[in-house]
Amino acid sequence: MNVIFSLSFIVYICSVTFLHSHNVALNYKLTAQQIEIEDANKRLETLKLEVAQFTEREYLMTISNENGGNLKLDQKNIVYISNEDK
After folding, report:
1. What pLDDT band is residue 86 in, cutting at 50, 70 and 90?
2. Which residues sit opposite 77 in a β-bridge?
3. CA angle at residue 20 from 18 to 25, to 5 degrees?
4. Contact, 71 vs 79, CB < 8 A?
5. Most distant CA pair in the chain: distance in Å?
6. Which of 13, 31, 35, 12 is nearest to 23 (CA)?
7. Is residue 8 classed as helix, strand or coil in its secondary structure?
8. In the chain, domain spans
9. How far is it, in rounded angstroms, from Cα 20 to Cα 13?
10. Which residues, by range, are in coiled-coil regions (predicted)?
11. pLDDT over 90 (residue 76)
């Protein structure tokens, strides 16, 4: 009877130790993925701001004027004028 109890106790200790170490490893992976997701969200927000900046009419007009002024405004829209249209 003592042998069965001792064997059961050893198996119990081993399983608790294994499950605890596995839980720690999973928590580490979860934390690493959460950090990766937060970094990706920050990069996404930065890119959204850059895209918003690049699509502003004033920015496009400035770039156009610096490079020869091939754009004109048609109410709120920007119209491209090629060199043949001039």
Report:
1. very low
2. 74
3. 95
4. yes
5. 102
6. 31
7. helix
8. 1-55, 56-86
9. 11
10. 30-57
11. no
pTM flag (> 0.90) = no
pLDDT in tens, 16-62: 999 999 999 999 999 999 999 999 999 999 999 888 777 777 777 77
Is a pLDDT exceeding 60 seen at residue 83? no
Amino acid at 37: I
Which SS3 state, helix, strand or coil, does residue 69 take?
coil
> Cβ contacts of residue 79 below 8 Å, gap of 6+?
71, 72, 73
Q: What is the pLDDT of residue 35?
A: 97
Residue type, 76: K
Does 14 score more than 90 pLDDT? yes
Angle of CA points 34, 26, 31, to nearest 5°:
20
Q: Count other C-beta atoms under 10 Å from residue 46's C-beta.
A: 10
